[in-house]
Specification:
The complex is a heterodimer of chains A (120) and B (271). Helix content of chain A is 34%, strand content 13%. The longest helix of chain A has 20 residues. An eight-stranded mixed sheet of chain B has the order 3-4-2-5-1-6-7-8, with helices on both faces. Classes of the chains: A alpha+beta (120), B alpha/beta (271). Chains A and B meet through helix 2 of A and helix 7 of B.
């Protein structure tokens, strides 16, 4: 059997790989194409505002627009797990030396999510 | 019949837009329709070479838009077919010279004397490509069975659905067709190339034709003779079939079986 495999290596069907990759990337791109143009700008500004109070990375804030039938839903997810509160910038926060305590975020109960929140 | 504006577009470069525009326009002319083929690729003029009239270019599209020349001074009459005219573009580097209202004026003037206005779009999704597809009644999406080409085609289909004049005016949408070029049945059989069904399923637009990868296409461009004038060429025949389908005539797909080359043909290396 081994010898046979060596003599006649099974050629991978790369066309099938191409087809599957295309299907996934195009499904993603078609969904984002339908999104309004302001979403990236909104996401950037929200990051700036939230970032003034909490140390946050770009990937911790997600903006999404979902449509179903007549209803449009703007979904803004801010992940604060382990985020650190920044001293409030009112001019008197400079003396603070102790790092702010991390925000404790309750783990969401899988059953309690509102219907529009995607799992994960 | 009201004149029809057909744009050949793809997003990706090098997939065969100009070859296909030349072939489709020539095919329509061979079928007796008065046809003009326009080069929208400002700054990178090439349709003139593919049509074999590069030494006859005096005035161009931009000259006519700017009012520096009359339309009949810029149109080049094809020497092989009386129904066929070539409208070359300019080699200017100012791509914005293709003003939308100017293009509209020229297209309206052409509509008075032609049945089909075939537009060869530049690659990309910049000004020239958008201008070329804006006025389209029909779009032929030239696609290779290859991931980047299929993805870019999908992008262009999205742009046609949102940015064309028909979309902006809430008219009947642009009629969209898929033209699959550089198709190699041998490689599809080996599982090395996306098959027709794959591309059709992914893009979900109707198939106008499949043009096999063929040596005759390079021969055609070498000599400046659109490939449909080469009677012995499978690619030329495939383009003529596509033109027939465009005119509403059903045609079976051809040249999709892998070519079995004999030992001696391989030995002497000539198709």
């Amino acid at each position: 059997m081994r010898l046979l495999d060596l003599l006649f290596p099974e050629r991978r069907n790369t066309a099938a790989v191409a087809r599957d990759r295309l299907k996934i990337v195009l499904a993603h791109e078609r969904a984002s194409r339908a999104a309004p143009d302001f979403l990236p700008a909104l996401q950037k500004e929200l990051l700036e505002v939230v970032g003034r109070y909490v140390e946050i990375r770009d990937d911790m804030l997600r903006v999404n627009l979902a449509r179903s039938g007549e209803t449009s839903l703007l979904e803004i997810n801010v992940e604060l797990d382990g985020a650190v509160i920044k001293p409030v910038g009112n001019g008197s926060g400079g003396g603070r030396t102790r790092p702010a305590p991390p925000i404790v975020v309750a783990k969401p109960d899988p059953g309690s999510d509102p219907p529009w929140v995607k799992p994960g | 019949m009201a004149a029809k504006v057909i744009v050949l577009t793809s997003g990706k470069g090098g997939v065969g837009k100009t070859t296909s525009a030349a072939a489709v326009a020539s095919g329509l002319a061979l079928r007796g329709h008065r046809t003009v083929v326009i080069d929208f690729d400002v700054g990178l003029r090439n349709l003139d070479l593919i049509m074999g009239c590069e030494r006859r270019v005096v005035f161009d599209f931009i000259n006519v838009i700017n009012g520096d020349a009359k339309l009949n001074q810029a149109l080049i009459k094809d020497k092989r077919n009386d129904n066929l005219y070539i409208f070359p573009t300019s080699q200017t580097r100012d791509k914005e010279a293709l003003k939308r209202d100017g293009v509209e004026r020229v297209l309206d003037e052409l509509k008075a004397s032609f049945d089909y206005i075939v537009c060869d779009s530049p690659a990309g999704i910049e000004h020239g490509a958008i201008t070329a597809l804006y006025f389209a009644d029909t779009a032929i999406i030239v696609t290779n069975p290859e991931v980047s080409s299929v993805r870019d085609s999908d992008r262009i289909i999205g742009i046609l659905a949102s940015k064309s004049r028909r979309a902006e005016n809430n008219q009947e949408p642009v009629e969209i067709h898929l033209l699959l070029t550089r198709y190699s049945p041998e490689r599809v059989e080996k599982g090395e190339m996306l098959a027709i069904e794959d591309v059709k399923e992914i893009l979900s637009i109707p198939l106008l034709g499949v043009v096999p990868e063929s040596e005759s296409v390079l021969r055609a461009s070498n000599t400046g003779t659109p490939v449909v004038f080469d009677d012995g060429s499978p690619a030329g025949q495939a383009y003529l079939d596509a033109v027939a389908r465009l005119l509403g005539e059903p045609r079976e797909l051809r040249f999709l079986r892998p070519e079995r080359r004999s030992f001696f043909r391989n030995l002497f290396g000539r198709a």
